[in-house]
Amino acid sequence: MSIACALLVFTANAQTPAPITFGQVDLKDLEMTSYSKDTAAVAVVLADYGDYFYNFQDNVPRAIYRRHVRIKILKKEGFKYANIKIPFYFPNDNTKAEAFNKIEATTWNLEKGDIVSYSLTPKDFFENKESKDVYYKTFTFPKVQEGSVLEYTYELTSGMWYELRTWEFQKNDIPTIWSELRAEIPAYFIFNITLHSSIPLKVQETKDGENNFLRGSIRDPYLSYRFAMEHLPALKTEPFITTLEDYRSKLDFELSATNFPDQSRVDYSKTWESLNETLLTNDYFGKQIKKFDEAEKLALNLKAQYKNDTLALLKAAYKLVQSTMQWNEQEGVFTTITNLDKTYEKRTGNAAEINLILIRLLRECGFDANPFILSTRDNGQLSDLVLLNRFNYTIAHVALNGKDIFLDATSKLMPMGLLPLNCMNERGRLVVRKNSRWVKIPANITSRKVTLVTMSILPNQQLKGEINVSFAGHDAVSFRKKVLTKGEASYSSEYKKSHSEHNIESISLLNIDSLDNVPQLQVKATLNEAYSELGDRIYFTPTLGLAIDEQPFKSLTRAYPIDYTVPQEETYSAQFIIPEGYAIEEMPKNDAIALPKQGGRFDFRVEVLDNLIKIQSKINLKKVVYMSDEYPFLREFFNRIIAKHTEQIVLKKK
């Protein structure tokens, strides 16, 4: 991953004027018709300026956030950026609540050579509740047209002085010309400031100063920081990534200590050891494992059935919880109640509750089972900072014969040893009394799809035969989920409708309910218009549209790594019976392509035996992550695969 993560070090510098002033829009910005560094951009952030500082009311600190944003609308598709949502926190605890001190917004247009402004009034701003404690201030700019410049500014007071907001330099979908944050922090607060970015800072400055904060006429020191980046590309979703947040250029603030006048210094930075102890003694985590008494009886029954087979006992315990408990689709590190017996009675729970039940049962069965916390892929990757709120999921870990076994009983379609794809996010923390540590989450089970085809070439452009598709690894989980979600009858019916141009005789779905066997789709059919005829020749593509025939990577370049989550393998094997009276005139040649650094391989083989043409195509992507500098090779790899898959076989009458 090309993201740098480092604690910033600063040098002294003088104060610089703010980059923009509200109400003073340049004519050149209104006349701007495109952004030279991204001519396809529908809008561009001209400037995004933030100013963080502290105020004290009755000696209680308040964090103040000022923000000034200016956006240029370049095309009609950019009109959506006239709709603004600003999040703010409003819990029942008023000491933590956030409130707007002021907010202004104006649309600027160039009309018949004149600069015209349209400002919002107080009644044009609304507040909408997003969740229990999170609200949004929303508004829409008026009179928006191509060429408009939109600007808004606000000031927000927050009681959560200990959690300064993350500053995001990059925006989704549109580029940013200038992004700048300034922060004036009294020496009472010591923050670790961390930059996550593959783009270097344009400005990195600090300034020492003194001001009146808490002690009347006594001036106390502060540090004034300034950070800026310029010409930031839009952050755009691409296939095969974790989450965009892993690649966004941003600044994080972590409070490490407070040092108020006439008080002892208080350290907030935790160690992994202290975090581990906090979890083990928490009523909604470590203590919960002891509160599942039903596990003793369940374990006795299991041990009686599997006296001499350790692996079978492990599998049986996993299946018992997996089949008994229903996941409520809620993630989480902690339980929501303080008694797992009640959770088991209800037969439903969140991820932590189900997997802590599994851990207790495994312990009663004699296994070394412990909680394992992680961050799911859509939640983002973990850093070395000791921050519990970066974790959002709990699974079970078993140490058996020197091996790490990871178990998640939330999905009824996941065989033992296979984790949901969303949990496959590099590493997590093993929470155990001794030797708590980072453990790598292995991505060693390959997802496989195998397609076997046997066809006879009939007159009237028809092929008749069988198609058998089998799945393994996460491909098997995905296939089972599709079938079971729709129901076997509905899935078969929809398959027939989507292939209505063919005469499908039968569809068989095998091993859908058995996680121990390979699920299969078997189809007997007559394919219509499956080849073309010209004179005394037959032309057909032997992959029949059942192998990869479209480039998955459309862009010429790519900024992010390609993350497949697990290794991938796809095999297509076909046999075609040559009709009597015909001979092969032309067919694809054998080919083999290898990616650099043993990253993968494509093998294509053609064999003729009497009246049979045998085709085999095998794609093997061995790596889980391909770095952005490998992208050109991977893209060309698929170009050559697609070219080979679209080559034709030509038969000629003897």
Automatic annotation (TrEMBL):
<dbReference type="Pfam" id="PF12969">
    <property type="entry name" value="DUF3857"/>
</dbReference>
<protein>
    <submittedName>
        <fullName>DUF3857 domain-containing protein</fullName>
    </submittedName>
</protein>
<feature type="domain" description="DUF3857">
    <location>
        <begin position="65"/>
        <end position="219"/>
    </location>
</feature>
<dbReference type="InterPro" id="IPR024618">
    <property type="entry name" value="DUF3857"/>
</dbReference>
